[in-house]
Amino acid sequence: MLGEIENSLRINLCDKEYAEGYAESFLNAYIATQIKVLREQRQMTQASLGSMIGTTQAGVSRYENVDYSSWNIRSLIKMARAFDVRLRVSFEPFGTLPGEVIWFERKTLERVSRDEDPGLIQGKPPVTDIGDWRAEKQRGRKRSELSSQIEDHSPQQPDAQEALCK
Q1: Which of 44, 95, 131, 136 lies at a CB distance of 3.0 to 4.6 Å from 154, suitable for a disulfide?
Q2: Domain map (residue ranges) of the chain
Q3: Cβ–Cβ contacts within 10 Å for residue 54, how many?
């Protein structure tokens, strides 16, 4: 079932207008949902997060609305500091979007704080993408052990994407 959804989305993303609209909507939903997940993971209220970043409870509520689209990098940096994580902004090819949609769940949005970061504590980098997850799976680690560390997904092979769009 998920494979069918992923393939259908890949085909639809061949249409430029559809791809741009879908990507923007998904970005807004992703940011808003991750803000809420990180706030709840840290047991913060909207009001307490608001006071940490210089806004009101209503302002945080607006940031957590999936229909909000007026993101401001400065505000996102303030939230990253409040959550004790770093902000990463990245330009990506459209072919990576179906994988991100499939992996869009609470566990994949959670992030450890700097004080709990295994990449800083244990001296080895955490699993950060689907390719790393696949390698760890082969070594016997379960998805549930890794999913909270997944940030992005390996790109679709260019030839396969080109074949879908013809």
Answers
A1: 131
A2: 2-164
A3: 9
pLDDT tens digit sequence for 126-153: 655 544 544 454 455 444 444 444 434 3
- pLDDT tens profile 73-90: 999 999 999 999 999 999
Query: Would you call 158 exposed, middle or buried from its count of C-beta atoms within 10 A (0-12, 13-18, 19+)?
Result: exposed
**What is the CATH number that goes with domain 2-164?**
1.10.260.40
